[in-house]
Amino acid sequence: MDWWNHVCEATRTLLAKSGVSADEIACAALSGHSLVAVPIDRDGKLLQEQVPIWCDMRASDQVDRFFDTLSYEEWYPVTGNGDPAECYTALKLMWMKEHEPEVFSRVDKIMGSKDFVNYKFTGRVCTDPSYASGFGVFNLKAWDYEPAFIEASGLPPSIFPEIIPSDAIIGFVTEQASAESGLSAGTPIACGAVDNTCMALGARGLDEGVVYTSLGSSSWIAVTSQTPIVDLKTRPFVFAHAKKGYYTSAVSIFSAGNSFRWIRDNLCHDLTGEDAASRGIDAYDRMNRMAESVPAGSHGVLFNPTLAGGSAQEPTPNLTGGFLGLTLGNTREDLVRASMEGVAMALRKTLDILLSQVTVSGEMLICGGGSKSPIWRQIFADIYNMPVLKTNVDQDAASLGAAALAANACGLWLGYDQIREVHQQEDIKLPIQENNAVYEELLEIYSDWTDSLAGLSDRLTAVKRRK
């Protein structure tokens, strides 16, 4: 209900600040965070106030049982579900069935995050292919649920919602939803899509090989292709695209902007707080200037940004972060730049996974909050060794993708080519070859260090658990 209430508040605020009449809204659509299981009963009553979101990992025992009768090697290439299996919705529901049987016995349907908000708007229960592809029981090639996977989960097939296209109108704003949200009753609501797919669409991911980096709290690199990119060793994660027959395949790190925020909060106290604000100090602006004062390679300091654990593309989920190469001669400026370089190096390692299987377009669009930093964009260009593009869309790519779905649903657009026209180039950073030469050498050290750190992190985790 927090999601619904805040969507309503944000919608009312947007209408008020923009001065646009609700009657002028032709259609609305949502981008929603993935791998969520919202249960309702036969009467449409919400059965839980809090539900597990994407990173909930409680279902480890259920994963073991799920793969008793079904091998991972059968499941992953079909679903493309490359994050830890316990993150996916079906496994979360298996956990609910075992640990909350009274709740589970009353479940009629489960929905994703944006699907629940859609339900509150229209009263209709449904989802789209992109969100369903994160349920753990979706066949990417068949573009539908896979009965064998539902059977392996022991879940009733009936609890999974109807799948309709992302740009289909699912219904219309009810009188009650109108009173709460400020949208006019009767406004069409499109089905929408999962955030990864909306962002891929909004980031111009309309053709084979178009790639972007989302640089937020966590970070991922995604590519659009007509073949899902799956690999049992490196496990990219895949979602169905809004365009049938296309997929968005991605690799990730769990800590990017939030690691940089940790650097700010723990190494740059003097740049934060009310006193700094009263003196007109912007912490991130100062940190950018610190990084600019240090050459590529940060005077021999490397940073591993894995402060939130390792992703599926990293050696172990227990991977921890750290600095390497510190001496008495290093400065805070070195550490700040090293933290930016470390995020880019971690992402470059995951980018190489995609590059081994698909040819990408000639430039990397970067979006998300971190894209605002010119020095960070240059570091990415140097470490990726490819042009890094920033456009006016910035961190609003997912919103643009959702808007495009709405525009197609109500007939304002016919297709998605106009997304390209919305993007206006603001800056492009070309790789500086001298810097790239430094980084290519350091990447080998970073890679070896990460592998060593992974083993030590596993041992350290074992000690922590014993205590």
From TrEMBL:
The keyword Phosphoprotein does not apply. Pfam families: FGGY_C, FGGY_N. Belongs to the FGGY kinase family. This is Xylulokinase. Signal peptide: none annotated. The keyword Chaperone does not apply. GO terms for biological process: carbohydrate metabolic process. It comes from Hespellia stercorisuis DSM 15480. Keywords: Kinase, Transferase. InterPro entries: ATPase_NBD (IPR043129), Carb_kinase_FGGY (IPR000577), Carb_kinase_FGGY_CS (IPR018483), FGGY_C (IPR018485), FGGY_Carb_Kinase (IPR050406), FGGY_N (IPR018484). Residues 2-202 form the Carbohydrate kinase FGGY N-terminal domain. Gene3D superfamilies: 3.30.420.40. SUPFAM superfamilies: Actin-like ATPase domain (SSF53067). PROSITE patterns: FGGY_KINASES_2. Residues 212-409 form the Carbohydrate kinase FGGY C-terminal domain. GO terms for molecular function: kinase activity; phosphotransferase activity, alcohol group as acceptor. It comes from the Bacteria.
